[in-house]
Amino acid sequence: xxxxxxxxxxxxxxxxxxxxxxxxxxxxxxxxxxxxxxxxxxxxxxxxxxxxxxxxxxxxxxxxxxxxxxxxxxxxxxxxxxxxxxxxxxxxxxxxxxxxxxxxxxxxxxxxxxxxxxxxxxxxxxxxxxxxxxxxxxxxxxxxxxxxxxxxxxxxxxxxxxxxxxxxxxxxxxxxxxxxxxxxxxxxxxxxxxxxxxxxxxxxxxxxxxxxxxxxxxxxxxxxxxxxxxxxxxxxxxxxxxxxxxxxxxxxxxxxxxxxxxxxxxxxxxxxxxxxxxxxxxxxxxxxxxxxxxxxxxxxxxxxxxxxxxxxxxxxxxxxxxxxxxxxxxxxxxxxxxxxxxxxxxxxxxxxxxxxxxxxxxxxxxxxxxxxxxxxxxxxxxxxxxxxxxxxxxxxxxxxxxxx
Amino acid sequence: xxxxxxxxxxxxxxxxxxxxxxxxxxxxxxxxxxxxxxxxxxxxxxxxxxxxxxxxxxxxxxxxxxxxxxxxxxxxxxxxxxxxxxxxxxxxxxxxxxxxxxxxxxxxxxxxxxxxxxxxxxxxxxxxxxxxxxxxxxxxxxxxxxxxxxxxxxxxxxxxxxxxxxxxxxxxxxxxxxxxxxxxxxxxxxxxxxxxxxxxxxxxxxxxxxxxxxxxxxxxxxxxxxxxxxxxxxxxxxxxxxxxxxxxxxxxxxxx
Lengths: 404, 256
Fold this sequence. Notes:
heterodimer; A: 404 residues; alpha+beta; 6-stranded mixed barrel; 4-stranded antiparallel β-sheet; 14 helices; 13 strands; B: alpha/beta; Rossmann fold; 8 helices; 31% helix; globular
């Protein structure tokens, strides 16, 4: 009842002091707009990164020879993985579905005609296409014969194409990789990039050929495997670790002489970072809300003391404590919710604006961020409007009417 | 329900004490007062006499420390703050020395105010009617800043009348007006009195008191003199009851 009759009074009051009301709202507008923008952009990035990491291969396990740090590492013999290790993993580890050796060369010279550029090279098996989801949209993928007979054929990523400034006509042509002539049999489908790391800047050759070109990697062979299913990733990891340790003759107290990473771990690491970033941003948003809440409280306290006589009069003509409380609380909550509403609109605008940038990820404002924006603005208004409203409600009408 | 011969107001041995720091101030020291329906009464007294305290208690802005206050036969001495607010909103009309109008609202909206808090119906119509009674039918949409002092006080009187109160309580109603305008306001009170309204004017001006049928003088927290005691045969002015808006008083439910 007291809400029904006092909300219009509050609205009238806000309307008659428009400039003051608007200025008070600015803080809330900024707080909510930044909340929505930040949440949406962070989410957009998270989603993009998740998709990007999935692009590196679902259920993938990366293994590479690696000497552990410290004394334990120094006492270890040679930290090596060779083709026989990889073949053994392929045969013995039941939790794995696909395995591909993955010798890498960070930068090789790619010559086509008179143009020469630099690109990373990977030596792979046929299975690599499936593990990494490298699809071929022009030409053909690697064939088993290419790998078995170490054919001088290659597949090229779109970025390399762009760097060479040539079109799809490259397929069927030959180019020079570190001085050796390779036939381009196919082009890899575009996969996108993340913070400067492109998945399309790559040249794939049969690993047998790569090992011929870079013989030092025969003993330092990295490989990629794909678990049979998501549930089997930990099992696959355990099987590989167990097998390699036995093959390398490691004793129980010795550390692994290789590194083993799963995609989940990388995703988890990223999630931890994004959670930390979100928490920090939430802190900043919290502070801005606090500031805008204090702004509203300050305005309402000034308003209560300016309007002490009015409060006294309202009480004299029959307004109860609840009426006065409702009136002033309604003013504070309306101010903050109006600010919240404008903030939500502004947040949408900023997100739309951010999405216009060509390098920006897709920014979608989640519905719960809108609800959150309204919720926290209403909550802040209630919280910080309560003190002034209670102060007004408890005024003694006699003293209030005598107030100068 | 209220009996016909029940006075509008009956105070019995009312005292009021305040604590100011260590000291206890005895503002009222046992006041007995009867105010009949349709009296026009002045309360006079020097400052510090307890006059303001008495007015606050009569207006239900404050409660006595001890004693009984019967408003239309019902004790209001022990009511809570919110119950008192409802009593004020329903039975008391205040007129203040400084008018106390809401500056940004029109005359009509100002007069409507008490009705808002009692959730009354037909607020506009009743507010307009009250403004007509004080002769401001042509000033309804004016703001206080667009009106003279006398007109503002008329708006305040209309606001005090709009909910048809048992008691119209005026605190120095002419204090901020020049003497001619003050006279007009007193004429208005006389007119309302003739229509049957019970009016109490708190004043320190003898001129104002002289216009009242009965004068109560307060000093040191006690009633020093009361014309009603001096003239025990005093009869309240007979109002044409049927013409008075007070005639439907009996139908209203008790607000507390």
